[in-house]
């Protein structure tokens, strides 16, 4: 049986890509809910992350990949950079055998965890990009549900790594609001 996140990643990549394509020329320097990132910085983060995917799924180590994706990976055409990185990432996920493990900055983990993390990142950053660039903020319910389950089970560990803002209290029963709040977004 295919891992649930692996089934959802292609659609999540497409949705994020649709958002990238819809960013107006005058919006790339606008702020996002990720307080230190502009729209361009946010897209740069996702492009770099998806450039890493083929390497990690092929069993390469962090040292082997090195710093080649540090800094600006967007160049003069952020949309083209996203499309190219997304295409390589999707091809790697399509052929992925998630039975193994990989070494990440936080330690060794199953590739199924990596798939979950990629889905969470795509889903939450889709909302960040929509909010920062003035687009519709609706998210896919299936991606939200899977991401929320992962976030609930791992929020303490993720917060300990310093990669998230502290959770924002909410009384909402809406899964999207719960996910975003859990991952430090004020909705």
Automatic annotation (TrEMBL):
UniProt cross-references to SUPFAM superfamilies, sorted A to Z: DinB/YfiT-like putative metalloenzymes (SSF109854)
GO molecular function list: metal ion binding
UniProt cross-references to InterPro entries, sorted A to Z: CHP03086, DinB/YfiT-like, Maleyloyr_isom, MDMPI_metal-binding
Gene3D superfamilies in the cross-refs: dinb family like domain
Every Mycothiol-dependent maleylpyruvate isomerase metal-binding domain range: 11-130
Protein name, per record: TIGR03086 family metal-binding protein
Source organism (scientific name): Streptomyces griseoaurantiacus
Highest classification ranks of the organism: Bacteria, Bacillati, Actinomycetota, Actinomycetes, Kitasatosporales
């Amino acid at each position: 049986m295919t891992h649930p996140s692996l089934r959802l990643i292609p659609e999540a990549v497409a949705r994020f890509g649709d958002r990238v394509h819809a960013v107006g020329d005058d919006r790339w320097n606008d702020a996002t809910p990720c307080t230190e990132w502009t729209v361009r910085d946010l897209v740069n983060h996702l492009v770099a992350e998806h450039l890493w995917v083929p390497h990690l799924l092929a069993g390469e180590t962090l040292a082997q990949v090195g710093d080649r994706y540090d800094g600006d990976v967007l160049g003069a055409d952020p949309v083209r950079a996203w499309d190219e990185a997304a295409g390589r990432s999707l091809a790697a996920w399509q052929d992925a055998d998630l039975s193994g493990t990989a070494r990440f900055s936080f330690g060794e983990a199953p590739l199924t965890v990596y798939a979950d993390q990629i889905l969470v990142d795509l889903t939450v950053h889709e909302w960040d990009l929509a909010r920062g660039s003035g687009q519709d903020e609706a998210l896919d319910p299936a991606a939200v549900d899977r991401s929320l389950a992962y976030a609930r089970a791992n929020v303490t560990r993720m917060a300990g790594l310093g990669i998230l803002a502290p959770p924002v209290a909410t009384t909402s029963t809406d899964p999207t609001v719960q996910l975003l709040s859990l991952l430090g977004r004020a909705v």
